[in-house]
Amino acid sequence: xxxxxxxxxxxxxxxxxxxxxxxxxxxxxxxxxxxxxxxxxxxxxxxxxxxxxxxxxxxxxxxxxxxxxxxxxxxxxxxxxxxxxxxxxxxxxxxxxxxxxxxxxxxxxxxxxxxxxxxxxxxxxxxxxxxxxxxxxxxxxxxxxxxxxx
Length: 150
Known about the structure:
The protein is mostly helical. The protein has 7 helices and no strands. Helix 4 (34-49) packs antiparallel against helix 7 (122-149).
């Protein structure tokens, strides 16, 4: 094979980009998720904005739901980054167990807070659902663009 063929198959910038990724860290996840953080901050401010109408508990529950969704999202990203960087190939059952345990903790916290401050606590579940929907769209759009360009 010629040098041009080898270079075309393994471009040097791709190899360097993989080598420069570094170790998984919370700061790296926060840097990679800047847009998601900005959207979450906007949603929390919008949620608290409802407090000016006299229902501060609902406002903080909506903001808390968005924050809970953001923490879940960032933890999931960190967990996936650790798996990718380690080179491990977890089994399907390990991934299912990790996901179920994470979602169980999230559900217990969300439902517990919602019940404690009922009926305004429903705002926590609303904030969580709205954040999840927006995070799904923010994750899906780049994938759709990539599929369209191929």
